[in-house]
Amino acid sequence: MTQRPHIPFFDLFGETGGFPDTVHCERIWDRARLHDWVISPHRHAEITQVFFMRQGHAEVRIDGRDATLGDGQFLLIPVHIVHGFEFQKLSEGLVLSFPAPVLAGMRPTSPGLAARLSRPVVGTASDTLVTLSDQLVAAFARPGLYRANLLVSLAQALLAEICALAPTEEAAAPGGAKMMALDRLIAEHLAEGWRAGDYAAALSITPGHLTRICHAATGLSASRYIEGKVMTEASRMLAFTQVPVAEVGYRLGFADPAYFSRRFRALRGQSPSAYRGRFVG
């Protein structure tokens, strides 16, 4: 039996040292040329990316399907989606990276918004999207007292514009219905400390079946996927509310604040207080 190739998880491509900022902006040129214009297949557990091609061309492999990215086009790559590129040399454009709490903080929420941000999208950039991209890059490069607030606001506006540009119908991914049902259950039971077995029972499937579905969709076990969702909500609360760190843990089913802090550090690479500090001021 042929084994599936290992697809690495990265924060930014080739990097595993933790996400460096509130959001991240870089030129396609800056990273692609370091790899001879070929970005090998990889995925991100906690980061959604938008590629905007100003000038040039790329052949893209997205979860086993081929696509192209040309002048004036954008590509949305959600979390867990395997993607790789072969760029035409000297291609120029932007790579915009958004950690999961930025998406989780978008309000008002709706099933349609979540669905559109969970599927890859290729399209032609609108004037609004181009303007928001330029404003985001400018804000990213400029220090300031309210830099993080501005970056989050612009990122969410840009993602909302992409949702507006996205096709209304997309083919469902394998296991998509179960994954959407799992996400709804996680949102409903965040404070109850449910484990994979509890969610499997609620979905009327075995824990092993749930893990197979999660692994096929995301490359993660059910337990790791569920913990990631819980920590994304923790990150959202730390970034966008003033709820004390211990209370964040209590609200997410952690009776022991120290254990919550240890698990948060294990997944985010820094303490809850240090993470909150990135979004303050």
UniProtKB/TrEMBL annotation:
<dbReference type="InterPro" id="IPR014710">
    <property type="entry name" value="RmlC-like_jellyroll"/>
</dbReference>
<keyword id="KW-0614">Plasmid</keyword>
<dbReference type="InterPro" id="IPR011051">
    <property type="entry name" value="RmlC_Cupin_sf"/>
</dbReference>
<dbReference type="InterPro" id="IPR018060">
    <property type="entry name" value="HTH_AraC"/>
</dbReference>
<dbReference type="InterPro" id="IPR050204">
    <property type="entry name" value="AraC_XylS_family_regulators"/>
</dbReference>
<dbReference type="InterPro" id="IPR013096">
    <property type="entry name" value="Cupin_2"/>
</dbReference>
<dbReference type="Pfam" id="PF12833">
    <property type="entry name" value="HTH_18"/>
</dbReference>
<keyword id="KW-0805">Transcription regulation</keyword>
<dbReference type="GO" id="GO:0003700">
    <property type="term" value="F:DNA-binding transcription factor activity"/>
</dbReference>
<protein>
    <submittedName>
        <fullName>AraC family transcriptional regulator</fullName>
    </submittedName>
</protein>
<dbReference type="InterPro" id="IPR020449">
    <property type="entry name" value="Tscrpt_reg_AraC-type_HTH"/>
</dbReference>
<dbReference type="GO" id="GO:0043565">
    <property type="term" value="F:sequence-specific DNA binding"/>
</dbReference>
<feature type="domain" description="HTH araC/xylS-type">
    <location>
        <begin position="180"/>
        <end position="278"/>
    </location>
</feature>
<dbReference type="InterPro" id="IPR047264">
    <property type="entry name" value="Cupin_HpaA-like_N"/>
</dbReference>
<dbReference type="Pfam" id="PF07883">
    <property type="entry name" value="Cupin_2"/>
</dbReference>
<keyword id="KW-0238">DNA-binding</keyword>
<keyword id="KW-0804">Transcription</keyword>
<dbReference type="InterPro" id="IPR009057">
    <property type="entry name" value="Homeodomain-like_sf"/>
</dbReference>
